[in-house]
C-alpha cells in the first residue's frame, strides 16, 4: 500500500515545484513498497540512492530559482535543505552498513519532513516566484 497519496492541498501553485514534489513522493512510495515487498537490500538501497539524488537535484532547482529572484529567505531555506541532506545521508549510511530496520524510519522521516517543508517553506518561495 502506498505510504502517501498526493492531494491538491500540497500544491504550492508553481508548476515546476509541484511536479518535482509529486515525483519525490512517488519515489518515497517506491522505496516504501520495495521495502514492504521484502525486496533485497540491494534493490532497496538502489531505490534509496535514486531518491536521495533526485532530492538533491530538486533542492538545487529551488535554490537556483531563489538566487534568480534574489529571494530574501534564501539562506534559511537552503539551511533546511542542507540539514535534510545531512540527516538522510546519515540514515543512508546506516542502511548501507546493514541496518535494514532503518527503511521504515527513512520513508516516514522523508514523508513528514517534506510535508512540513512544502507547507511552510516552499509555499513562501512559490508565492515569491508567482
Ligand atoms: Fe525547499
Ligand atoms: Fe521543495
CATH superfamily: Hemerythrin-like
Decide which structural class fits the backbone: mainly alpha
Tally of helical runs: 4
Radius of gyration over all CA atoms, rounded: 15 Å
List bound small molecules. fe (ii) ion
Question: How many structural domains in the coordinates?
Answer: 1
Estimate what percentage of residues fall within beta strands. Answer: under 5%
The residue fraction in helices comes out at over 70%
Largest sheet: none
Q: Give the end-to-end Cα distance, rounded to a whole number of Å.
A: 35 Å
Q: What is the level-2 CATH architecture name? A: Up-down Bundle
What would CATH call the class? Mainly Alpha
Helix-strand string: HHHH
Described by the principal axes of the CA atoms, the overall outline is globular
State the low-pLDDT regions, or none: none
The pLDDT mean sits at: 91
CATH topology: Four Helix Bundle (Hemerythrin (Met), subunit A)
Strand runs, count? 0
